[in-house]
Design a protein that fits this description.
The chain is of the alpha/beta class and about 325 residues long. It has one domain: Alpha/Beta hydrolase fold, catalytic domain (Rossmann fold, 3-Layer(aba) Sandwich). Strands 3-4-6-5-7-8-9-10 form an eight-stranded mixed sheet, sandwiched between helices. β3 and β4 form a beta hairpin. α1 packs across α7. The longest helix is centred in the middle third of the chain and has 23 residues. The chain is globular and about 45 Å long. About 45% of the residues are buried.
């Protein structure tokens, strides 16, 4: 097309290497099912945050605990925590705005904005104070809440959490390349056509230690989640917002004084256990639990080990 910028071949080759992670986000699909597709059939609930729909699960009675998924994820990352935790507390699991079945408005998705949206979500549900369980980038959001609104947070659980110096600590070459460049939409669309079906499988194989768990049902569910319309724009905001995380919340870990549990997969290939150990050494009084034979999503991969640890800490 006349007037369109021409990318050098070397840039195109590098961009195509990170396209698989973002590609599936471009394909549209029908509205979400009214049921969360898990081993259990759990009814979805909705609320409004600044006029946008947030979809969430709400189970059990007692002290509230909110489970916060990670980057490009969804509530499925906590599917094995719903029933066990709900025996002792109220368990709330949202799809954050920009993710999963929730709305995906054109927002900046800065760390500070994410914290404000999360506070408003708590307000919408009438929750003044809750324990927060954050996975990966969701742990970064939980940290942001603990630092910005410490009175709203009871206990803090960080699962393979978002560290400081993210780029340096990240062990995944694919994700590092994604942070280093922002491909134009046409490249992502081309990548979706070229490698769409294999995208999710390759990313999950990097995140999950035991590949036997990646059954056809799991892979298909994850592909459908990442093909939801509107998911691309929020995903592509991360490289822009990462400096704001580093300059803001990431420098303030030592200010966290809430009871804090750090859970880490011993075989995490995105952020290795040494990252969890560094986080543990920075947050005074925190406890670190390494989960054997688990990768970046230990609560999903080894719920038999993780759930008793979560329950003991939350009830302590």
């Amino acid at each position: 097309m006349q007037g369109s910028p021409v990318l050098p071949p070397t840039v195109i080759r590098r961009v195509l290497m990170v396209v698989p992670f973002l590609a599936a986000a471009c394909t549209t699909q029908p509205d979400a099912s009214p049921w969360f597709e898990s081993i259990q059939r759990l009814p979805l609930k909705t609320t409004q945050v600044e006029g946008f729909r947030v979809v969430y699960l709400d189970a059990g009675q007692g002290p509230p605990v909110i489970l916060v998924h990670g980057f490009s994820g969804s509530m499925w990352q906590f599917e094995y925590q719903q029933a066990p935790l709900a025996t002792a507390m109220r368990v709330i699991t949202p799809d954050l705005l920009g993710s999963g079945a929730s709305d995906k408005p054109e927002l900046t998705y800065t760390p500070a904005q994410q914290v404000e949206l999360f506070r408003e979500f708590m307000d919408a549900l009438g929750i003044q104070r809750a324990s927060l369980v954050g996975h990966s980038m969701g742990a970064g959001l939980a940290i942001g809440m603990a630092l910005t609104y410490p009175e709203r947070v009871d206990r803090l659980i960080l699962i393979d959490g978002f560290p400081d110096h993210v780029h340096d600590r990240l062990a995944s070459p694919t994700l590092k390349r994604m942070l280093d460049m922002q491909p134009p939409v046409w490249i992502v669309e081309f990548g979706n056509w070229l490698v769409g079906d294999s995208t999710t499988a390759s990313m999950l194989e990097e995140a999950i230690y035991d590949h036997r768990l990646l059954t056809p049902v799991v892979l298909e569910r994850s592909r459908r989640n990442r093909k939801r319309p509107g998911l691309l724009a929020p995903l592509m905001m991360l490289p822009k917002n990462l400096p704001l995380w580093e300059e803001g919340f990431a420098k303030r870990f030592a200010e966290i004084h809430h009871p804090t549990l750090i859970v880490w997969g011993a075989e995490d290939r995105l952020f290795p256990p040494s990252v969890g150990e560094a986080l543990h050494s920075t947050i005074a009084g925190s406890t670190l639990s390494l989960i054997p034979e688990a990768g970046h999503i230990p609560q999903w991969e080894r719920p038999d080990i993780v759930n008793p640890i979560l329950l003991k800490f939350l009830q302590g």
